[in-house]
Every structure is written in structure tokens, then in C-alpha cells.
Design brief:
Blueprint lengths: L1 H22 L12 E7 L2 E3 L2 E5 L4 E7 L8 E4 L4 E4 L5 E6 L5 E6 L6 E7 L2
Parallel strand pairs: 1-4, 3-9
Antiparallel strand pairs: 1-2, 4-7, 5-6, 5-8, 8-9
Amino acid sequence: MITLMVNLVGLLLMAGIVWWFWLYHRAPAALAEGGAIQITVEHGVYVPDRVRIPVNKPTTLRFLRKDPSSCAAMVVFDGLGLSAALPVGEVTEVVVAPSKAGEYRFSCQMQMYRGTLDVFDS
């Protein structure tokens, strides 16, 4: 009976981890006035983790890192050739202007923190 309980708890924990890191998605953040969006890095996630921006319009992403974890030290933008160091307690501005519509992933250097740029034709 104990073995069954331990196995069930283990399965529930694994399902929770899969949901948290790969399946759960928040609604996209709207573009703020002035073409900037604030992204907070804390508790193992980017908030918001999905950002909607127009094609070819420079957009400033302002990363505020509150998480002291070494995993949160960098943000890397797949497909855009961009990366930036994120010092704890400071705002780091990253300007992006993708030339094609689509989804572009951004993550920490170990790909534990994950986010998506949803780039649309305006």
C-alpha cells in the first residue's frame, strides 16, 4: 500500500512539472505605450511569458530580474541572434525587431525559463 501511495505521489509531481514547464501558457502581453513591455524574471518564469509584437517595429523588452538563480542570468532569443545578461535587481532593455511574422522563443541559457515572441503582420 505504501509503495502504491509513493508511486502515485511521484506521478502527480511529474505531471505538475510537465504542466508548469511545457504546457501552461499565459495570455500574450499587449504592447505598452511607447513600444515597450516590462518582463519580470522571478520564481522560475518570465511574467509575461508570451509577448505579441508587430513585424519590423522595434520593440523594447525591459527585463527586471528578481530571481537570484544563476539560470536566470541570461536571456537568449532563438532565431534572432540576440542575448543579454540580466543582473539581479536591474532593468535590462533588449530591443527586438523581427523581420518575419511567426513565433520566436526566448529562454535562459539552460532553457528552463521560457517565453515566446508572437510576431504578427500589422
